[in-house]
Design brief:
By secondary structure, the chain is an alpha+beta fold. The protein has helices at about 15-25, 60-70, 70-80; strands at about 1-10, 35-40, 50-55, 85-90. Helices cover about 40% and strands about 35% of the residues. β2 (about 35-40) and β3 form a beta hairpin.
Length: about 90
């Protein structure tokens, strides 16, 4: 099993787009079959990142299939237009 964690720092003034992006991520659960579990959350503290995705996949190949799915790419394109920074880690568990 693979856990995929991504954190984003968004540009100021993009709050509406941020909400659309995070809701778009949430909407992928149950739609893209490789995505076994996902949690999307907004930071409530004062740290470097504004939001996080924690998701789980059967394998690295399943994660790659998810990343290349057109529905994920559409959501990801919105993120790329509003983010300042991104950090990610994938690990086996």
């Amino acid at each position: 099993m693979i856990r995929h964690i991504v954190m984003w720092k968004f540009r100021p003034g993009t709050e509406a787009e941020q909400a659309n992006f995070l809701n778009g991520l949430r909407s992928l659960q149950g739609v893209i079959p490789q995505l076994l579990r996902s949690e999307v959350a907004v930071n409530v503290g004062d740290s470097s990142y504004d939001a996080v995705l924690v998701s789980e996949f059967e394998s690295l190949e399943a994660l790659e299939a998810y990343k290349n799915d057109p529905r994920h790419k559409e959501v990801s394109a919105l993120c790329k237009s509003i983010r300042e920074d991104r950090a990610a880690v994938d690990y086996e568990f």
